[in-house]
Amino acid sequence: MSATIAAIYTGCQFVAALVIGFPVPFSYLTLNLVWLSLIITCLWIYMGAGCRRSQVIRLQLKRHGIFAYAVTSLAVVYPLFYYAFLCAGEYTGAQLVLSTVALPLIKMTEKQLLYHVTRHAPDLQPAFVAFDVEVFNALFVSSCMRTATSLPVTISLMVADFLGACIALYGLRNLMLRVDELSVKLGAGITRAHMIDIAVLIVNHHHPDSLMPRPSDRQATSSFIDNHKNSSFDAVHGAENSFSDPPRSPSKPAWGKNSVPLKQSSVAPAESAGICPTSQLSCNEEVSVVAIKQLPLDDKQQFVRETCRVLRRVEFLLLVEYTEVMVPFVYVIYIATVYNFPNRKYFPHLDGMSEAALLSTIRSLLIYCSLQLLSFVLLLTVLRRRYHLTSGSILSFVLKTDWRIVQGLLVLWIIYVLQSSLQHVGTDYTFKFQWLHAHDNK
To answer: Distance between CA atoms of 303 and 104, rounded to whole angstroms?
Structure first.
């Protein structure tokens, strides 16, 4: 099937080049719509019998198609922004407005779009949103930094990122306040450092069918807890959507004893043998399970729900900062490498660039990368000291468990964006397409 899709897609490219001219204008965008349609059609043919029998499969296939076309909007919106940024090259004020107002608005809109089309896979939302929108955004910001090396533009981009991080941290603060309100009911000794362990106690010792309104959710959660009983982060993260509705038939909690030793909150991969301490509290401190048993079921649901929201918000923050640090460095390595290759003449932004201009561009990008790295370090410090979370463990957990999505999206978008300036792709933000006029004259 893959060979069939490749053959048909190549044939469409060849026919389009014969009819319109080579290169086909914005071939990455226009012809990739054909590629997506071929994939969805072939999947429907291959899974046709199963789709006709199962409404669930039809729904999943429909959701995948919607997500694919939603992601394609990134390839439309960001090039238009980049074209506007290039047109405003002689007007620093216009570039400042675009970088501080238009760019954050575009990023927020795209995040909301992808968030809504991935609501069926909540555990994967941070990775999908961050490594689609943020990678695309970071690559085009790097392109803007290449064309505009002025200090005010760099500062404006950093200010926009800083304000976005502050807004996200403010939302995290509000979530933590809700957790604090519930922690008060457990006793004065319960702090934010115990948040994850308390949630794990509730998930591990309270039977899932008293918390799940749907049988499918109960089965999935029971299996998840059985497989990850020794991992604090896995147990809570797997229950992220488990506490959304009131239970229909509560069952008896399965508490093993009246009190259990409460280890410090730890967030680590499932294979991790050790515990990463999150505060200076004693690891031997005990929490009374009696207090948890006395909590109403709604409070237990609320506690785990808010804990999951905190973890997911932190995951979003870390992935955003991670991409904002990593992608510009990749871009610097890319332009420095391609500049020394003979095929640089096929890249308009590198063809004819002097070494002095290259060094100036790299210097500007490295300054931006350094500021982003400083922002990342500050975020890690705030999360550790104020919220008692080991951010490094959370980030490593996400990158390890979702590595297929992370690597796939990184490779896809880095190749897509960096190669989009190649002459053979037909990218022309001036929309003049002079090579087509030359083809018509011939």
So the answer is: 32
- Give the other-Cβ count within 10 Å of 99's Cβ: 26
Q: Which of 148, 82, 159, 142 is nearest to 366 (CA)?
A: 142
Predicted local distance difference test score (pLDDT) of residue 278: 39
Q: Which residue has the tokens 């990850």?
A: 228
Q: Which of 227, 246, 244, 245 is nearest to 235 (CA)?
A: 227
Token couple for 248: 């229909």
Structural tokens at position 402: 């979702």
- What digits encode the pLDDT tens for the residues 271-290? 333 333 334 333 334 455 66
The backbone torsions φ and ψ at residue 23, rounded to the nearest 5 degrees and listed phi first, read -75, 150
Locus of tokens 């420095």: 336
What is the residue extent of each domain of the chain?
1-72, 81-174+309-441, 186-305
Average pLDDT over residues 119-136: 85
> For residues 155 and 207, what is the distance between their CA atoms, to the nearest angstrom?
52
What pLDDT digit, counting tens, does each position of 60-78 carry?
878 887 888 888 888 888 8
Whole-angstrom distance, CA of residue 287 vs CA of residue 196: 13
3-state helix, strand, coil in the chain (%, to 5): 75, 0, 25
Residue with the two structure tokens 């392109």: 143
> pLDDT, tens digit, for every residue of 191-250?
777 788 788 778 776 654 454 444 444 443 344 334 444 444 444 554 444 444 433 334
- Identity of residue 185: K
> In DSSP terms, which residues pair with 392 in a beta bridge?
none
Q: Left if phi > 0, otherwise alpha if psi is -120 to 50, otherwise beta: which for 347?
A: beta
